[in-house]
Amino acid sequence: MSRPLAYEEERRLKTGHLVAALALVFVGVLIGWATNGGEGSERGDRPNADVGPTDTVNGIPVGYERSREGAVAAALSYGTVVSEPAFVTNPARRKQVLTAVATDEFARRYEQGAAALAELAKTPLYRGVTEGQRTVWTGAPLGYRVERYSDDEVVVFTWTVGVLGNAATTPRASFSSGQAQLRWADDDWKLAGGIDKTGPVPALAKDASTSSGDEFTRRLRDLQGLNYVP
């Protein structure tokens, strides 16, 4: 029997799995897909400028229409700040983000996993970011679907890939799929829960070989993110 989304989200927070996954590759890497829509998605799922955001709080886009499109736009946009390195390494920034994009209940549960975030912040990749090392920190959208929607709640399923590396670490790609639950609260869509799992993961091509961290960051230096997915 499947368990409620909130139960699963709380269980994963206790293990630290969700906090790590959200910080790395959660829905934030889907912002390019959201602005383009993606082939095969229903027109009604595509965010557009008319549904928000209408304001920013501490640089965080907020203010979304109470509609299916507004909820999807909020889910994808909120993910961009959740996937920032500062969300893991800077508790003050994390509090700003959670205050702006999450329900009070979710923010409290998320902060219970702060110990896991503190350990994550000590890893070579995050240390490299805070110390100013050349770092590739990017993601690509592979798709999303709206699994449940009402005027009060939405559940968005995503499949994403994140690519991370710096000169001191072996570059890694991480495939992730999961659900983001948003609830209408305080006249805006707010993150209320989530489930994130590794995969599904494809195999590398037979002739593929892993680049060194130095080559990886040197060849991809100054790489800019995409506003639209081709």
Explain how this protein is built.
It is a single chain. With 230 residues, the chain is of the alpha+beta class. The protein has one domain (5-199, 208-219). Helices cover 38% and strands 26% of the residues. The chain contains 10 helices and 6 strands, in the order H-H-H-E-E-H-H-H-H-H-H-E-E-E-E-H. The strands form 2 sheets. The protein has a 4-stranded antiparallel beta sheet. It is globular, with a radius of gyration of 17 Å. The N and C termini lie far apart (40 Å). The relative contact order is 0.19.
Short recap of the structure:
The chain is built from ten helices and six strands, in the order αααββααααααββββα.
Helix and strand arrangement:
Layout: H1 5-15, H2 17-25, H3 31-36, E1 55-57, E2 60-62, H4 68-82, H5 85-89, H6 91-101, H7 104-111, H8 114-121, H9 124-130, E3 135-149, E4 153-166, E5 172-185, E6 188-198, H10 213-219
Antiparallel strand pairs: 1-2, 3-4, 4-5, 5-6
> In which order are the strands of the major sheet placed?
3-4-5-6
Overall, the morphology is globular
Report the radius of gyration as a whole number of Å.
Answer: 17 Å
Give a short account of the largest sheet.
Answer: 4 strands, antiparallel
- SSE topology string: HHHEEHHHHHHEEEEH
The number of distinct helices, counting runs of at least 4 residues, comes to 10
Into which percent range does the helicity of residues fall? 25-40%
Cα distance spanning the termini:
40 Å
- Annotation, overall tally of beta strands: 6
Low-confidence stretches: 1-47
**Range of strand content:** 25-35%
Structural class: alpha+beta
**Overall number of domains:** 1
Overall pLDDT: 74
